[in-house]
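Continuing the series of single-chain predictions for the mutant panel. This is the parent chain; the variants come on the following pages.
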Amino acid sequence: MDKIFKLKNKYLSGLVQWLAIQQLTGKQSRERTRFINLLQIKLKEIEGFYKGLMEKFIEKGKDGKYSTKKDKDGTEVYTFVTKKEEEEYVKEIDDLNDEEFKIELTEINKEMLTEIKKVVLDTDYKFGPKENTPRVEIVKQIRLANEYEEWCQSFEKI
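Parent structure:
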């Protein structure tokens, strides 16, 4: 069976951001740069799909900008012509986020994937909130810890 690195699209951005702040030297740093460059290509593609979905489903005002309104929490949200369009948009976004980004392990990229696997699995980075952390930051830290688990599962398969 071929070994393939697979990670859902919704976890790619977090992995890129986390890898970017890791203090690495030499070979690991170079392989991180190569890996991040691959992921950034995919992230640009995904961004293009997001923009296409916005064009297709979100209402625009006379000024050509996407229309927004405040929801019950006071948060700005996009407006849709119909509830059905909103449901279709949400479904399309969910489907896109759940698609898997795949890299087949080959002789060409084996070194890169092996080094990034070590960085992810052998990190001494402390996940989770620290004492006296603001609530907003606590939510981010918990989300990062959950994403880390997804990254580990993906790397453990190669």
